Amino acid sequence: MTIFPRLKGNSRGCLAFEPLFLIPYSMFITYATIYMSKLGLSETQIGWVTTLTLIVQVFSSFISGYLTDRMGRKAALLTFDLLSWSIGTLLWAVSTNVWFFVAAAVINGFQRVPHTAFYCLLVEDTEPRERTYVFTVLQVIGVIGGLFAPLGGLLVYQYGLVTGVRIMYVIAFVLMTLQFLGRHYTTRETEMGLRKKREARELGLRASLHDYLATIRAVLADRGLLLMFGVYILFNFQMTIKGTYLALYLADEIGMADDWISLVPAVSSVVMLLVLWQIVPRITDRLMNRTMLWGFILSAVSNAILALTPPGAISLVVISTVLAAAATMITAPYLEAVVANAIDDERRAKMFAVLSVLVLLVVSPSGIIGGWAYSIAPQIPMWLVTAAFVLSLPLLLAGMRRSRRIEEG
Question: What is the pTM of this model?
Answer without folding.
Answer: 0.72
